[in-house]
Amino acid sequence: MGKMYRKLALRGGEGGREWDDDVYEGVKKVYVGQDLSRITYIKFEYVKEDGEVVTREYGTITQDPREFIIEYPDEHITAVEGSYNKVALIATEVITSLVFKTSKGRTSPTFGPNLFGVVNGTKFKFEDEGKKIVGFHGRSDNAIDALGVYLVLDSLTTPFPLYKLDAQGGTEGRVWDDGSFDGVRAVRVCQDDHRITYLEFEYDKGGKSEKLHHGVKGGTSSEFVLDCPNEYIKSVEVTYDEPKLFQNTVITSLTFQTSSGRTSFFGYKVGKKFVLEQKDHRLVGFHGKEGDAIDALGAYFAPIQAPTPLIPTKKLPSVGGNGGVKWDDGVFDGVRKISIGQCYDVVSYVKFDYIKGTELVSGDEHGETLPEASELVLEDDEYLLSLGGYIDKSRGAIRYIDAVKTNKRDSGESELNYGEKFTLGENGNKIVGFYGQASDVLHSIGVYVVPITSAE
Question: Is residue 167 domain-shared with residue 299, that is, in the same domain?
Fold first, then answer.
């Protein structure tokens, strides 16, 4: 079972080189070194899942570092407090103090120059209601320029870990959170003369499209379409500023970079910059703040999926008439439930639920919904081989569906004479999707099939 990791944004200056330790099971020790004006050195001892201890260190040792020991696994860090400031001969801000707090109520010494415990500079605090800190990231050269943390949140139903990178930008506006999806299909952006005013994200969830939008639509509109699932967003470079005509800080530009090397830019590159990116991960969702424009932006990242072996999918010809509106559920890994509504002498409604990976995907309803419909639910290791019934050629519609065959059961062929008989399916294949045409009745129906593998 995967876990959710919250990545809190860096606090401090913009100097030095960026580093990122990612996440571990816990932190065992912290060593901190300082000079007369700043934190110059930091070292972490992390514990991996298998118990191995790994060390990561940054900055320059100018004095003997002091250590703070955490009684792992019974104790963990829950908060980090500190400050950052400009010091003599340094153009950018650096970390000037650090304090670590634990789940047992213990507090480390105040690391960094301080007079009677008083520190100078802008104060910060990393904490989330006692959640466990399991990793650090930051910037450093010959001192520690900036610091951020990873917190572990609740476990997920997904088999892989998910990273939630905190939203950055303005502090005003309503909070919104799209959550995570399988991928991003398209991004639609509106901008005025100063800022990003509107974002619409088209996500992919189990092969189906879901659109969510934020901000106020208007101004210049643009679109960025990805070749999902073959292409994904690797990173988003974002700038934010307080335009002179407006009172609050807003997002001013967005630069998307994809796995295929494509880049797409929107807005005006003014103000401060941050980057939404997690190494070796793909962007799968957004969150942020909104008002008359986009005030802040954050993102969800999931591991890059290994390419799955390509199984040839075949779209078999449909049966029935040509009336109604076309529909197409697409292709999945299998069928979980079949729902059929019969109105007098014709099929008026069908709906299919599918399996995609470990998820259950509810298909759309086709035809005229009825209060009651007959249902067939397939078991976890059961798959659909064929579906049969009768066509009413005079009405151009499906009259009856009553013959279902799976790898575990077979209803047999109907002995009723309801018109022209049909069977959907192909030997050696299983049904993994449906398509057709419908109005207030089901006019036609067809199937997608894939070969049955030896493991099934």
Answer: yes
